[in-house]
Batch of 3 targets.
Target 1
Amino acid sequence: MPDIVVCVKQTVDVYQLKPHPETLEPVFSQAQSKISDFDLNALEEALRIREKGGGRVSVVSAGPSINQLLIRETLAMGADEAHIISHPLLSTYDGRVTATVLSKLVEKAGRWDLILCGEASLDNSDYQTGPRLAEIFGVPHLAYVTKLEISDGRLKAWKSMEDGLHVASCSMPAVVTVGLEINTPRLPSLLMIRAATKKPIHEYRLSDLGLTEEELNPSVTLRELKALKVERRRVKLEGKPEELAEKLADILVREALAR
Amino acid sequence: MSLVIHGENPETIIRIAGAARRFFPDSPAQAVCLAPPGDEELRRLGGAGVETVHVLPENLTSQGPAVVVAALAMAVAKLGASTILLSATKYGREIGPRLAQRLGGSYATECIHVESVGEGLLVKRLVLGGAYQASLQLNARPYVIGVQAVADSAGGGAGIPRLERLDVDVDAPKIELLEVVKPEASHVDLERAEFIVGVGRGFKRREDLSMAEELARILGAELGCSRPVSGDLKWMSEDRHIGLSGKRVRPKTYLALGISGQIQHLVGIRDSKLIIAVNTDPNAPIMAESDYAVVGDIYKIVPPLIERLREKLGRR
């Protein structure tokens, strides 16, 4: 019966993000927030483990301004409870700050056997939180996991590496980070959404976690953020398949194969 | 600035060392290897500017990242390095954050540029799905940097590096590596390919990939794919996966077949000189990122395209 903590990040939906035409800075106010994709895979995996072997699934989240409605979605999927903190200093490029605060939330969630995280976030794709939490708690870390099994208190994981699948095993407690391949996150039913309104969301202040603002001073700071300008010709070709094939063949011969 | 360079194998270290020489031409570099490099590798490490190669005790990697990190932390302390350069590979991204956490330094990965500024380091990396470039200042030493090392490497170094054994005794949480399941090895070097045909979910069945293979053969192109094709469907090996968590490619031509162009994939192809996309959906994100956006069904366009190319190129 492993008790599991799942770390979720609220990120901007990068697909909706558009740069300001002059400054080229992203206009965050025009894009919606969502739970980072891989984190939903982490939550789904936790719920499947609970369905097989019992245990409790807690969600933790830290950010500059956490939207409770998004956390409610994770409870609707099936998490039992959530522990969150919003603080302006958590809008950060310093993974140490994020991991420090998350580790305190994990402690608030109580006893745990397994921490599950998405392998990277949609916005920064830093791949930092999982390995940092593993170091903070002094436990093993299994990364890029595409399949996970638990038996006799041990984890067995299939890790997708560049040179193939690494099958590895370790004891719990441990940190596991996952990507899209491990599962397809469930969509909560209306019934589950209703049930979620009764589940607890614990919101903390920094002092509740025994932290001060000084401890959140970032060692990494943002100096500039600008859209990359890639000029593409965007020539649209439409028509009958045979005609398109002919045109495409011409383009390939003329522009791609000419040396 | 004293540099320590580490990667999963000598080849990776040679690439990072080449990048390091561009970023810090005057800084001495030492490498930390997991196993002794061969003579030829040692010579090339020297060519990339590495002065000393330190070899860690054997079999550390099979015990997992925590053990490697503990050993590296000891090495960094012994060698007195201010900057640790790692590869921005899956291995490097497992090691880097944990090492930075242990050393209390600052960390950034997938850096495409690194330079010293005043009391810190300035790095550039892509964020927000790869559509934006962030300049980040790192203020806490030691700096742990994951480098996006492309194929080119600045030479300039001469001599053969000294080879030294690093005796470190570590105690850290272990994982046990049970087995490595190699894919049907394709040994493809997509990063260096000049022409790539990329396939996506527009392909309905695995057998249909033969269409793309035939086209690639005629064009003299390599095959790549979006994440679902190698990840979910396992139709191609992971080393053909192009995108945020896969390869970053920079071919002269990228021909995207049935790829919608999720931002994670677009990051991987951004440096292509010419992008041509074939997709049924004129509003698919890939279309706006293409030089030529062909609106149509790959099943109806690719077969006649192969015929036309055969005629034009006289290839069978």
Target 2
Amino acid sequence: MIPEIGHFSLILALLMASLAAIAPLYGASRNDQRLMSLAVPLMVGQFLFILIAFAALMQAYLVSDFSVLNVVANSHSLKPLLYKISGVWGNHEGSLVLWVLILSLFGSLVGLFGRALPLSFRARVLAIQALITSAFLLFMLITSNPFERVIPAAIEGRGLNPLLQDPGLAFHPPLLYLGYVGLSVAFSFAVAALIEGRLGPLWARWVRPWVLLAWMALTAGIALGSWWAYYELGWGGWWFWDPVENASFIPWLIATALLHSTIVMEKRDALKRWTLLLAILGFSMSLLGTFLVRSGVLTSVHAFAVDPERGLFILILLALAIGGSLALYAFRAGSLEAGGLFAPLSREGALVANNVLLSISAAIVLVGTLYPLFLDAVSGAKVTVGPPFFEISFVPLMVLLLIALGFGPLLAWKRGDIGRALGMLRLAGLAAFLGAGGAYLIWGPGPVMAFLGFALAFWLLGSILTDMGHKAKITQRPFAPMAALGRLRRVPRGIWGMWSAHMGMAVLVLGITASESWMTEKLVLLHPGDATEVADYTMIFQGVEPVGGPNYTAVRGHFTVMKGSHHVAELYPEQRAYSAPPMETTEAAIYPLIMGDLYAVVGDPDGKGGWSARLYWKPLISWIWMGVGLMVIGGGLSLSDRRLRVGAPKRAAITTRPGPQALPAE
Amino acid sequence: MRPILWVPLLLFAALVMALTIGLFLKPREIPSAMIAQPVPAFDLPPLWMSGEGLQSSDLAKGEAVLLNVFASWCAPCRIEHPFLMELADEGIPLYGLNYKDKPEDALAFLGELGNPYRRIGADRDGRVGIDFGVYGVPETYVINGQGQIAYKHIGPILPQNQDQLRQAIKKAAQESPANEKASE
């Protein structure tokens, strides 16, 4: 009964979404107030019905209702509660429900918080949002009904892939979707602006909080995924340039560029067409990612069950949504008036550099991901692009980006003084030297790129501190520390957000560089009692013992870690064998320390009392995620800035924008 | 109207065309040209200085064998690895083609996860992979006793592919003289 309620709710939501896609759009073109004001209630209505459907599916998982095909295929009665919940979105159908839920949630939020938007503009934004929702609902109801029944009901479920049974992964997809789908708001804003044919700084101010929100979720989601790969998969790495990882990384790069170009648009009324294009591309890349994951055109760890019918449907959806918006862009963007001018060496110039570098990076990742497919389609030749391609092409761009990042915030708007900026950056240059030298003192010789990485990270940190000092006016005499601190406290949250996010970037670079360059790895065969030196640590193998878990059995190794005579930690890596579905997984034991992680994996026995083991010392690796954390905090700070508070544009909207009546009709 | 504004649309149209073709290529199916063809001739060095490498003649010794293309940098390879270990334990002859990999990384990979392969050839520049038409790592080939490719699986062998692969092995074994003798 409950699954049927869920099914009907989806159908009702589809009807409401279709109405919400048509009526307000028509109303906006006819300037019909009643039709336009239908948008918000219809949006909230579809959200509520999708929520009911989501709750119904959740209920089926929680009570292990094995008369529902989706539950049979992806759940198991013995599974722990958390994974019954995360099982809801751990499969194609369920994840689509979550996808449309978030889509309509964002639509409702725009409707409820966007009272300041002109009525016709809000109606158009919501109509575009509803159009996307209805397309996905249609897709779901036609090809992937999550509530399909099995008769007779199954006795037991097939279980969830044990690799996916992890707290980190339980929240990775929802966050990622929040990011992917959040970009739809920028997309809808861009399409609505193209339809209205008007675009100004206010548009940038409206769209920026949504981009920030989506960017934060996407950043956190990607970080969580890589963290999961690092500690759960026991592969020793954290990023693999896997097609599906790339599919989330491309929208991230574009969202980052968009975040920066909206600043230029808001402050200087420039880069309008470019910003619009980024807003369209950001969500387009999210859609493309969805297509890649679900159509099976590329092989990947993440791929859901493959079904060509679904692939074709998403491809058509993709072609209509992206093709339609890009065609609109081609026709309409030319009529937007050009914005403010600026010299190449200026804050705007630096932000353009940021945009160009980020967009090229996104294009490279896209090409690298799709190249095998392209070549196959064109010539039938079969090739693979491995991580080497991405490393060779990506790293130089990031080097340039980091250099520019040091300059950007110190250049003035419109026309910057490079001489003055260079003067201010002397200390940052010194910091770069000290950083590279410090790395040599701590870890000794390493590859050239490692020292370059440290120099760049410290260059960036130096530049941020210089900027802070400049804002606090610490060079003013007489020196008054309290007054300087007071000035820092009055610095807008948006600036603090920038500092935090840029500092996060520096910390991330340090983490990546150190862990890639100075990692110690030991592959050893150990008998109980054997000791191995790994970097500054001694790891003593105490033996293995069998252990049992709720739905698996395991052998557990035991290592005691000493530094000199000082006890550091006990490590318990496991090899688990799951029963449903039958699968073996490696649980690495990781002991994070601020200067690096101790990492142990236990392998197979040699049959003569010895066990193979893989032991690592990975310097600064947790800094990767700390850096990402700082970026997300920066996004949060920026979001909480007064200027961007949702109510703030209200006055501006009334004073600077003509009412909807004054807008030219089509 | 500005021509440059049309560029994104045109690029996207090209992308959609490629994706459409890609969708109907069905990369997981056997390209018909490959079936029943003898394996390309090759002679690869071993992963390590000592030990034996892998030659095409190793694959045509009269019994059905599996050739698995793997690399330490390939994430999906880890997914199918336990299944390969299972096959090896059952005594199914499994050979490895280590594709575009550093030998030390590959050894570490096998050290961590176990070595299911009877012999491994190190295809460092990917030449042999090209001859085989390797589309993406991992790939698994079922080769019958005459050294002909009987079946090809692209991508990791997921639980739902295992039965199909086992059947392909059984079928190839029936066509192979050495296996027939063994079963008699």
Target 3
Amino acid sequence: MKLSSAQFKHTARKNLHDVRLQQALHRLQERFVGARAAALTDIDDLPRLRAAATEIRQHALTHLDVYLEQFERQVVASGGQVHWARDAAEVNRILLELAARYQVRKVAKSKSMVSEECGINEMLAANGIEVIETDLGEYILQLAREPPSHIVAPVVHKNKEDIADLFVRHHHRPRTTEIAELCREAREMLRPHFLSADMGISGANFLVAETGSALIVTNEGNGRLVTTLPRVHVAITGIEKVVPTLEDVSVLLRLLTRSATGQSITNYVSVLTGHKRASDLDGPEHFHVILVDNGRSQLLGTELEAMLRCIRCGACMNHCPVYQNIGGHAYGWVYPGPMGSVLTPNLVGLSEARDLPNASTFCGACAEVCPVSIPLPDLLRHLRVRQLEQGLRPRRERGSLRVWAWFAQHPRAYAWASRLAARLLRAVANRRGMIRRLPLAGGWTDGRDFPAPSGRTFRDLYARRTSS
Amino acid sequence: MRVGLFVTCLVDLLRPRIGFAALRLLEAAGADVVVPRTQTCCGQPGYNSGDKQAARALAHKLLDEFQDCDYLVAPSGSCAAMIRVHYPTLFADTDDAAAMSRLAARTYELTDFLVTIAGLQTVPGTFAGRITYHDSCSGLRELGVRKQPRTLIAKLPHVDLQEMHEAQTCCGFGGTFAVKYGDISARMAENKCAQITATGADAVVAGDLGCLLNIEGRLRREGSQKTRVLHIAELLAGETPEST
């Protein structure tokens, strides 16, 4: 996926004034925030479940090598094959080799954010292979040639009118804005592709080390068709998705679906193990898993390791007041919101996404809802430390920081400077005590007044009071 | 009970009245209050801008200034959380870890201190009218300050607390965020002000001056002069603009 995180401010500003997008974001918040809260009331002891989920994910990361190797052995034992990909280029090379080996002309895909990371669709198309996205949201985005704006609800930025127009243009059928009709239309369009695809590509919500299974959690049923109808099934996912046992998955699933969509369980939970056996009525003849690193292993053993616990529920973005106002596209890559603001700089480079760690008020709503207790504000703060160390902050910001730090450590100079500032700020206020415009703080005064001080510092008033 | 009042840099510069209100409340609670003269800032602006070195230097300075206090109290959830939650992290695995942890353990946000430690029974405030309360993020999520201010508000006989929708949603201040990402910040403030206005409250009250500056600035820019914007200490102490 094309990286545009450097345009964060520009896109955010544009999105703040996009009325349709604002309505869509409002609907997302209404639906997901409330649904999550309601769904979690089913759980007797939420803190305990959350601690258990956190522990499972952390344990898997601590012993990642062990569980990945166990996973590979189990995949091989069930007749499949595991491929290790260091980066996007290796993923694409492996996929092309598989496509050539099995004479693949058409690929049906279910939803996979890792495949967005690697730009698989563009690569396959460039090699003459037809790719069809079959998740409804992703299908719509493929028609619109747009990237996803949310990791669970990729097309949340569009409303049904947008989708109706898009379908008319591509399907040449009478326009409808009935959601059931739109779904039926997409289903009719997709069905022949499921039947004629040579390869199905899925992601994986979890990899189960003890069984060698790739597990996917879906609502539409397209995931089952993609992973069972074509001759070849390839699951592509990040190395961090492995967990030791199916028992562990059952703990994580209770939190994943509730945190993501507010469902106690999704319509489909598919545990995909190996290829079709002699006794099976259906299933792929060949089963492959591509394990993608693409920058993840660099986080192991660092202050940012906790980020790899992420189970991609999207709760952090649903609850983030910044995401709620600017939408996912502003973040400029595959992963938006707080989790994206940590992941993106790590996966694409800190200097490519300078705004992301800074565009947070550290309100902590994300960490509060994270089902695996990722301290997202702490991780963002750590990225700010790295930015400063690597000289990636603007000169003016670094300069102001130095001036502030010097004054704050010199109380007499500080008292003098704040006395002066209190008077100056008072002097430029209007009769209501508000400052309409402040040089160097246009970011504040463009959208707000600045309430002026009374003119005397506490320090001075207190000294006067105690001496009299 | 010797209590060190950490006034905070924002209150010192922009609204000294909040400092005097805090002083009055602490004295009403029976505390022997000291206000170290050399205090400046807790270091949060540096800490949140990635400058750990400056944050550590200011933490040391603050530790020295409040060394002989039984408690450190700040009229700000954000500054109190910086000391209580983040100082120990900043000094983990250093020789100062124990001293910083002891300082952290005796640091409180004002309303938390008044309710949890001092058990304040009556408050001097005299405000009459409807108010709504905004839960500032750091106090709420890092210190668990939610019931404490409401317990104290309930002691004001002529105050009717009308809760706003999404009282726990960030107002958009976020320190330097408000300047660096001004348009996102202003939109968040706009949303917050809409919730405040919808309650029909005469005053919006919060425990952090940063949020109050943001909210007041946005209300006034929108042309709303009616809703008053008060710090919880001002409300409880009766140190409101027309009382001084």
